[in-house]
Prior knowledge:
Blueprint: E1 5-9, E2 30-31, E3 34-35, H1 36-46, E4 51-56, H2 61-66, H3 71-79, H4 83-94, E5 97-102, H5 109-114, H6 117-120, E6 125-128, E7 132-135, H7 140-151, E8 154-160, H8 163-166, E9 170-178, E10 181-189, E11 200-208, H9 212-217, H10 229-238, E12 242-246, E13 250-253, H11 257-269, H12 275-303
Parallel strand pairs: 1-4, 1-6, 4-5, 8-12
Antiparallel strand pairs: 2-3, 6-11, 7-13, 8-11, 9-10, 10-12
The structure holds 1-O-phosphono-alpha-D-glucopyranose (G1P).
Amino acid sequence: MKVRKAVIPAAGFGTRMLPATKSIPKEMLPIVDKPAIHYIVEEAVASGIEDILIVTGRGKHALDDYFDYTPDLEQSLMRSNKSAELEKVRHTAEMANICYVRQKEIKGLGHAVWCAKSFVGDEPFAVLLGDDIMFGHTPVTKQLIDAAVKYHSSAVGAQEVSLEAITGYSSLKIESLEERVFKAVDVVEKPTPDKVFSQYAILGRYVLLPEIFDILENTPPGFGGEIQLTDGLGALCRSGSMVAVDFDARRYDTGNLHGYLETVIDFALRDPGVEPWLRQFLTDKVRGFLMSDYINNKHTHEHGDGCGCGHDH
Length: 313
Ligand code: G1P
């Protein structure tokens, strides 16, 4: 079994990042100097994927522009001898063979994946969600491909999350197969606390057998009135053909403001061109916070609460 194709659903509105995402696809928000989708495509390519389908929606032209050639810009960079910049710009257009399909109606992740049916044909394929950026040694998609090949089944990426967080994800019912690999017995999308199977959530990466398309075609709308990929996966679990891999990587959720800022700071700290400056900037900031905390505490200690001095204790 060889996994050559990947699908990146990128049709959502990005409502958690408004107003920025009013006119910029959330997948194009920069993580240091590259848009989020760049890291996703890089992971797919590093996992051996040759063909990628991005499922887009209305107003998402910036995505196809990003992976296209830019002759005017390239000529201008060439004329001004900016070879490093030229190299970066060309690289984005040559990273992978990328095509696009439009999800004409926002009908859920399951429907977005179903839109890839004719692109995928009768092959296993990977799905990478654009909000989830992974950082680790072996690409997470490659970790899933290895498990899917070994167990001749679909594979999903999972990690343990807190009880509060699991209600915003999906919860897996699992049985251990080997270290970090489980048989997935059932799964529920956005469970209420009483419906949680385990604290293992599916997090943004899937390798699926093409049988998922027939299942999705017959999957009724679920959570939020949308066709949920997780509901389709539930059918795969119950037929005994899905494993879950507790993947070895740090996952970043760039789809909300706190997660996005965390990702930008961590990736900047890993960039040798930015790290010395950012480290100094953050150190100065923290010193400033500690100093003002110290002064405030000292003031409260000396004057007591409500001393009427006009300062904010
Ligand atoms: C989606 C999936 C959910 C998964 C989550 C994190 O939810 O439907 O099963 O746990 O991504 O990857 P969303 O974040 O789109 O609400």
